[in-house]
């Protein structure tokens, strides 16, 4: 009995010791054996940072992304205000709007969404004219989520470019402009924009072609950068960048299906020159040479849409063209070494010449080769009025009426385009290319702007009737 009690005592002591040891082990952080975990289905992820991921594209995007903005154009509209039921009856609720005079309030509706790029630290934004042309006010979204109001500094419909100014005094990130005259076919380019409202979308591609001409409806567009970087609705006005993050183009258009991979951008060399004019003068100053041209008949077997050559059909007296020795009847073989594809292309290239810059014309005159160097001068409003008289056959004057002045047709040259359109002395000219005019000075300025597009559209009023009449204004 005594031996059994001692044995029980020793067993109790050993059990207590094991319990204390287990408690100590748990207190020391040694876990008790657990059920075995199943092996992982996939190898362990490699979470180490890799320098290979920071490609030149990534570095370029990080450098300029903060300067790309979303542009929302809002149009002033009238919004009908629902009638308030007077008696609260079911009849008032159902038929109140039918028997009461409708009430309206002013409001804003978004008419277009596009992109833009900040090109200076003080907040100038370069974008497309078609993004802002219908807007009354503009909101610009930044990368950090803020929205700033902006005003239009100037627009140029003929080049489809516009400049906005952000309403802020802070210094903003901006994109440095590069060059487009030395772009390489096949070099990498980056497009950033707001396609389908998806802000700051980045796509990449290559330069597919330079100096590309293409048809947009009835209009031929000249001298674009072609790229296969994805450009979609909403990308308009966004930047096309080179691999160093420099601005080389302004994304503008796509051809055919959205998935065709054919996009176009305005070269930055032209866009910068136009933007500087818009910022400095509020409009683009067009160079004037005083040369009229037309297409020669196409030769058999020539490419469709091509020309049989370009011939000078007129030289304005006292113009830079006359001073350079250009004569009517000369055939234009090349401009600065490049043959023109058509008269329209030649006119585009001559009008794109900055004021004070010279162009070398290679001419053919009665079988002999002749060179002429023509320097562009500014087309003044007074000279634009003279061109209207020469090309359209129209002279205008100013007439005072109660409350202001009106622009009145003073004379119409016989057999001129204006005479063939039926214009008569005494007709009122209300608008020039959709811009209201009420003075001769305003008419002249509007005519100078219209010549960049090669078309003069007049809103003419006779009595209570009004009609828009278009004239070629090359």
Automatic annotation (TrEMBL):
Residues 278-339, 376-464 form the PDZ domain. Residues 300-338 are annotated as: Disordered. Residues 1-36 form the signal peptide. Keywords: Hydrolase, Protease, Signal. SMART domains: PDZ. One of its GO terms (biological process) is proteolysis. GO terms for molecular function: serine-type endopeptidase activity. Gene3D superfamilies: 2.30.42.10, 2.40.10.120. The keyword Cell membrane does not apply. Residues 324-334 have a biased composition (Basic and acidic residues). It comes from the Bacteria. This is Peptidase S1 and S6, chymotrypsin/Hap. It comes from Anaeromyxobacter dehalogenans (strain 2CP-C).
């Amino acid at each position: 009995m005594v031996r059994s009690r001692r044995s029980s005592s020793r067993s109790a002591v050993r059990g207590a010791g094991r319990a204390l040891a287990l408690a100590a082990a748990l207190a020391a952080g040694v876990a008790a054996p657990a059920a075995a975990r199943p092996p992982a289905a996939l190898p362990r992820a490699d979470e180490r940072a890799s320098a290979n991921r920071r490609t030149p594209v990534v570095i370029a995007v990080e450098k300029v992304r903060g300067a790309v903005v979303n542009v929302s154009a809002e149009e002033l509209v009238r919004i009908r205000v629902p009638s308030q039921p007077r008696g609260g009856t079911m009849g008032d609720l159902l038929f109140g709007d039918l028997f009461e005079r409708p009430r309206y309030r002013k409001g804003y509706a978004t008419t277009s969404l596009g992109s833009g790029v900040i090109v200076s630290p003080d907040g100038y934004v370069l974008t497309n004219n078609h993004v802002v042309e219908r807007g009354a006010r503009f909101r610009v979204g930044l990368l950090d989520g803020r929205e700033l109001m902006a005003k239009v500094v100037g627009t140029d419909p003929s080049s489809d470019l516009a400049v906005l100014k952000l309403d802020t005094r802070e210094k903003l990130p901006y994109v440095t402009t590069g060059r487009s005259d030395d772009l390489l076919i096949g070099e990498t380019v980056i497009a950033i924009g707001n396609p389908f409202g998806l802000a700051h979308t980045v796509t990449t591609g290559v330069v597919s072609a330079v100096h590309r001409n293409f048809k947009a409806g009835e209009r031929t567009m000249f001298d674009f950068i072609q790229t296969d970087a994805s450009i979609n609705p909403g990308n308009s006005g966004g930047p096309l960048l080179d691999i160093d993050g420099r601005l080389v183009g302004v994304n503008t258009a796509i051809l055919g299906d959205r998935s065709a991979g054919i996009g176009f951008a305005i070269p930055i060399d032209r866009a910068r020159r136009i933007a500087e004019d818009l910022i400095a003068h509020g409009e683009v100053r067009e160079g004037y040479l005083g040369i009229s041209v037309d297409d020669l008949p196409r030769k058999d077997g020539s490419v469709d849409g091509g020309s049989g050559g370009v011939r000078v059909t007129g030289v304005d007296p006292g113009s830079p063209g006359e001073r350079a020795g250009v004569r009517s009847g000369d055939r234009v073989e090349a401009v600065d070494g490049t043959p023109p594809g058509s008269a329209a292309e030649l006119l585009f290239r001559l009008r794109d010449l900055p004021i004070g810059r010279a162009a070398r014309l290679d001419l053919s005159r009665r079988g002999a080769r002749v060179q002429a160097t023509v320097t562009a001068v500014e087309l003044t409003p007074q000279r634009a009025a003279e061109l209207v008289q020469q090309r359209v056959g129209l002279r205008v004057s100013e007439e005072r009426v109660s409350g202001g002045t009106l622009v009145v047709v003073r004379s119409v040259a016989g057999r001129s385009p204006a005479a063939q359109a039926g214009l008569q002395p005494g007709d009122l000219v209300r608008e020039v290319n959709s811009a209201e005019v009420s003075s001769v000075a305003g008419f002249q300025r509007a005519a100078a702007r219209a010549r960049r597009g090669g078309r003069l559209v007049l809103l003419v009023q006779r009595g209570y009737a009004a009609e828009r009449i278009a004239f070629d204004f090359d």
